[in-house]
Amino acid sequence: MGLTNNRIAAIDFTRGISVFFLIIVHTMLIYGTLRTQTETTIGQIIIWLGRGAAMYLIAMGISFTFSRRQSFYTIIKRAFYLLFIGYSLNFVKFIIPEFIFGGLPYRFLNAYHLKTQSLETSLFFLGLGDILQLAGISLLLIAFINQISNNKWLYFLLGLSIMILSKELSGFKTNIIGLEYICHLFFSNQYNVYFPVFPWSAFIFMGVFLGKQLKEINNDTQIFFKNLALQSLGLIVLGLSLVLTNYKYHFGDYYHLGPGGSIILLGIMMLCFWIANQLVKLFNPNSPFLNIIIYLSKNTTSIYFIQWTLINWGMYVFGFWSLHQWSVLALIVLFTVLTLITNILYRKLKSLRIISFENNL
């Protein structure tokens, strides 16, 4: 299946699936007991699905390449918009519950070694770095990179360099006020930033590289996905050979990967794109399942904002790290349905010009 309305079915499919995985993974991370997350088959599978965040980032890079908004100022505007939404989400997820709902749950705060309703706690959660912050910063970098060159190999070399250097730069910081937080966003090795620019922006840059590859072959998806499969296998072999030399260094911390971990994850996610392309061919273009996945893909920003808000606020009803696997599965269904219903309501309000997010990431 090729391009339709400037969209690529397999890219939409993988992005939509990865958004759905986010709801599943976030529900498990917030509500599943540690034993449920680490010792049950369902928990281990769901936690592994969290690796799909890299697929989400690659799809973001590919989609950006085909976006009509390519001028310096439109990219900058989009970048600051994503940063605004990211910090607004932090406010809604954490600050509103902290001061309006009577404080964040004790067990949740204890996991971060924080105390309720303190300035330190408020600043920590307001400044928490996640995918939206990563996306915003990456777009800022792309805006300036494009002023230098639009060559695909520049993005490839930049992505590869970030993967190689990330572990060595992990934890780098300065005590200069203001710059310290910027260092956290770029190089954090703690859980105040879940997706630091090093290494995670590399997946977005590699996505841009792949998107430019596709453009150069006149959007021939058959050739593109065939090459993608071969490239992915080479990356998996290279990454695995590095990981086997020192697992802890290369893949011991998923959120702060070494070069081997980043390379093997890139290879696996690229292979997933090839698999997605094969799967999409099996579906009727008008099938309900495919339409739902495409719907998720077209509403990534609002879906991301809504699901995190509902899941975090749900701690006041269902607790934190307190449920076993079958209860978590029930909540996954509940939060998926609630997220979709809320997003439908949001789209209705958007059509009335009452509220608006820009989609997609």
From TrEMBL:
Extract the Pfam families matched here.
HGSNAT_cat (PF07786)
Swiss-Prot/TrEMBL keywords: Membrane, Transmembrane, Transmembrane helix
Q: Which domain of life is it from?
A: Bacteria
List where the protein spans the membrane: 12-33, 45-67, 79-104, 124-146, 153-172, 192-211, 223-244, 256-276, 288-306, 326-346
The answer to keyword Membrane applying to this record is yes
Start and end residues of each Heparan-alpha-glucosaminide N-acetyltransferase catalytic domain: 7-217
- The protein in question is named Heparan-alpha-glucosaminide N-acetyltransferase catalytic domain-containing protein
